[in-house]
Amino acid sequence: xxxxxxxxLQCPIARSLERVGEWWSILILRDAFYGLTRFDEFQKSxxxxxxxxxxxxxxxxxxGLLERRRYSEKPPRDDYVLTEIGRDFRPVxxxxxxxxxxxxxxxxxxxQLIDRETGAVAEPVLVDRISGRPITSQSFKPSPGPAAxxxxxxxxxxVNSPSPEATP
Length: 168
Description:
The chain has helices at residues 12-20, 23-33, 39-46, 50-62, 84-87, 90-104, 150-160, and strands at residues 66-72, 77-82. The protein is mainly alpha-helical. The chain starts with 11 loop residues before the first helix and ends in an 8-residue tail after the last helix. 8% of the residues are buried.
């Protein structure tokens, strides 16, 4: 069965999932943030089949999240290094860590985000860069952007219309 491509959908979430939606991809990016760069390092850390790892690394390179850098000619070997696009994914990984700890770790946190200066455990939140306010559903809403097609505008109009329960 052929997997549907999200790359052409006019939705930033769908287009992002096209690049990182397969779970191995996010785990590879996590390990890249931890400093791993070599095929054998990723394979040992993840316990992933070499053929699957090769496909996922190729996909992440093609999507612009990782860059191949040759470190050996004979035999040919590459490092896989985060690009700017890949580094921009770091807050998503931190958010997944916090969400996973909050909802799926009854034994407690196995990974925490720590303030380098104070050593205090950080609690990631999404904040508007302009106002400095935390982004919550009470304060912010999705809105069609300048490139939105009619389907996107209709979807967001439904989302932004008051529900019967919210109307006084």
